[in-house]
Amino acid sequence: MNASSGTHAGAQAAPEAARRAPSSGWLTFAGIIILMIGCSNVISGLAALFKDDYYTVSEGRLLVFDFTAWGWIWLALGVVQAAVGVGAVRGSEWARMTGTALAVVVAVCQLAFLAAFPLWSLLVIGLCVLVIYALVSPPRGATGA
Q: What's the predicted TM-score (pTM) here?
């Protein structure tokens, strides 16, 4: 092995390392939290669809819609969130943008459920804020750690 071949191998390793996407623990965190909230939303949606008295509030309506409508909303949001959570861990740009938008939508929708589940709603709103930060802070092209 001569000096020129050692230099050549070292020069080739540097661009290969530079081409690797940076990893981010924040994306892993965001993906897992989105996936967990999405699964919870699917369960909440199914509960609202199959058991009308699951959500107990005095008036029988939450903000705008009835329980069946909220069941379908939570079910649809949950399924999309589960897919976005997997995409966020993989570092997909579409998942980062969609996840940020979904986190805002879910946080606003949780305001409607403050009467039924105040602690859970506040917890999910707080997690949505963390998810938004976790999705926007890593560099472009980063993947989950």
A: 0.75
